Amino acid sequence: MLQAARYLLGSPGASGFGSKSTADEVTAACPDLGSLTAIITGATSGIGAETARVLAKRGARVVIPARSVKAAEDMRARILGECPGADILVLHLDLSSLASVRDFARRFLSLGLPLDLLINNAGKFSHGQLALSEDGVEMTFATNYLGHFLLTKLLLGKMAETAAATGVQGRIVNVSSSVHGWFSGDWADYLKLVTRRKIPYDATQAYAVSKLANVLHTKELAARLQEMGADVTVNCVHPGIVRTRLNRDREGLITDLVFVLLSKLLKTIPQAAATTCYAAVHPRLAGVSGRYLADCNEALPSPAAASRSEAARLWQASEDMISGSSQQGQVLQYGCWTGTSEHPTSLCPSTV
């Protein structure tokens, strides 16, 4: 009850910020980010666009990867209209395609730029029936999680190298959602069964699984970064409830009524981008890693998201998936089954 009241009132937490804080406000303590280079996925609209705008306004070089280069160029023009001196780069990236992720990483690394911030923000909520990526992975999971897993893996060396050369700690931010707590089953079984069409497809369930994976990825990556001795942190954020293009696609009388009733709970986009920006650049988060943040303060993830063993299990399954995608015929190797991307057929002896 107290937590709900604090949310509605926007009362600040230990960080000094709360649910009503904006991205501009939380970055006021770091007005000059001119030495930083940030990659922000999903920055053509909504929370990602506001994150890109605010970081560019503070001087950071911002790289906008996007499936629609035109949308990214339009976003670049909008930022330059407000900040004429901003350094904004646009590159093509389709997160649902592991080949596209690899191509993006190669092109970015070929530019010889440093990399201080990686903000894995892009999100997809599938509508309608089950769709598989070109790699044979459920589309929401492929876009929201697996593409980001591979992207992070491919860019981690550059981030560690940049941090070592500059003395400035690198930061990775994974944007999740409190919806991750709506799934409490076995994510591996769920993905296996839904991909093989053994259970009905539920878009909300698929979204929750992808967001649970974001939190587990954060937990395992934080431990691995510490073991590596890399001066790079990773944290996960819940931006809050906000009406973005992600849910505006579900137009209709019932949807509109729900948003009217929940209007007091909704954040503005500047408020929703605050926790991402806080995790990305605020001095208070220096050296802090592996945490789950909401309203610019540390929060508790769901019990399923707090398991280190599940985080390690997901990591291994993810390695299997990204390795399998590169084999001839795009053979899917998802821990507990193999087969073509269209028809996973045979079970492996061991399970993930």
Automatic annotation (TrEMBL):
InterPro entries attached to this UniProt entry: NAD(P)-bd_dom_sf, SDR_fam
Coiled-coil ranges (or none): none
Keywords associated with the record: Oxidoreductase
Molecular function per GO: oxidoreductase activity
Pfam family, one: adh_short
Family assignment from sequence similarity: Belongs to the short-chain dehydrogenases/reductases (SDR) family.
Protein name per UniProt: WW domain-containing oxidoreductase
Organism, scientific name: Aegilops tauschii subsp. strangulata (Goatgrass)
Phylogenetic classification of the source organism: Eukaryota, Viridiplantae, Streptophyta, Embryophyta, Tracheophyta
